[in-house]
Amino acid sequence: MHAVTRREALARSGRFLLSAAACSLAPGLTTGCSNREVDPEIVSRVIQNVQEASIDNIRLTVVYDNVPCHKGLRNDWGFACLVEGLDKTLIFDSGRFDDIFMANLATLNIDPQQIDLLFLSHDHPDHIGGSLKLLEANSRLQVALVKAFPAGFKRLVTSAGATLVAVDRPQGVSRHCLSTGEMRSVVKDEHALVLPTDKGLIIVTGCAHPGVVEIVERTIAITKQEVLLLAGGFHLLMDTAASIREKASRLRELGVKYVAPSHCTGGEAIKIIAEVYGEKFIGSGVGRVIAADNLV
Fold it and tell me: Is residue 101 part of a domain?
């Protein structure tokens, strides 16, 4: 198996991913974007209503990724990650193709009926492709997404019987997890998943279009807590080596203890981040399981 590239994904699916691919054409378009202002009083109330989860129970399983990790699972351009050990079992994003997404769930012995919450980072096809098929298997889901999602997609979610949570500002989406709130980007508005634990924050990103450093900075500003783990797509595909190293170093300066980059981070970027982080780097890919209690 090899890591599926964006070019290969486009060749397989034609225009289906052209909108998603456009964001890689100019690195200057992916960061430095203006973000919605956050009212400190609102943030204070949000944090008060979100409780820390025990690190002993939290486990992340990568269900969909273009980076291969375990045989028996199909890798393809996109991302999805199951999070267990919270008050609700949630899946973050749902990959590109619903057949691959559902097949990987089955291979990993993940029962869709046991999932309570679907958290969608942004509406690019490689992150929402399996959503409706998942809703067919479990219509009781709560679906958290940013308000920028198309109205038609929102109608499909509610018509399937799911409960829709449209996020604008930072807010809790369950007792143990919260959204960064909608962060603006010239590519796609996006939000990241934040899990406060008794040993620090866990942040999961989809593509980090607003900037991976900016997402971490915003999360720390919201929570006033240190980051134990940052995982997901960092979107550094078109960055220069110097830029990648600078951003990886900035993540360390911000106190991010562990990183597990994959998906749209890019092969060169993953290598450089691994050099910067050393033993605190976690190799990721489809099928990777991260037991959070092993990080402390």
Answer: yes
CB 254 within 8 A of CB 223: no
Contact 114, 141 (CB under 8 A): no
How many whole angstroms separate alpha carbon 93 and alpha carbon 263? 12
How many domains does one find in the chain?
1
Of 191, 88, 185, the residue nearest 140 (C-alpha): 88
Residue 210's pLDDT is what? 96
In a domain, 239, yes or no: yes
> Which structural domain range is residue 256 located in?
56-295
The reply to whether 142 falls in a domain is: yes
CA-wise closest residue to 218 among 245, 181, 166, 265: 181
Residue 249, amino acid = S
Segments of the chain scoring below 50 in pLDDT: 14-34
DSSP 69: -
What is the domain-level CATH number for residue 87?
Answer: 3.60.15.10
**Would residue 10 count as lying in a domain?**
no
For 33-47, give the secondary structure using H, E and C.
CCCCCCCHHHHHHHH
Is-contact 38 264, C-beta < 8 A? Answer: no
DSSP 8-state assignment for residue 54: P
CA-to-CA separations, 167 to 20, 35, 41, 188, in angstroms, rounded: 21, 14, 17, 14
Q: What is the pLDDT of residues 72-100, one digit of tens each?
A: 999 999 999 999 999 999 999 999 999 99
The H-or-E segment that residue 203 falls in is strand 200-205
DSSP designation for 186 = S
Query: CA-CA distances (angstroms) from residue 262 to 65, 112, 230, 255, 266?
Result: 7, 24, 11, 20, 7
Distances (CA, A) of 48 to 91, 169, 196, 242: 24, 15, 12, 40
Which phi and psi (to 5°) does residue 34 adopt? -75, 140
Q: How many CB atoms lie within 10 A of CB 72?
A: 9
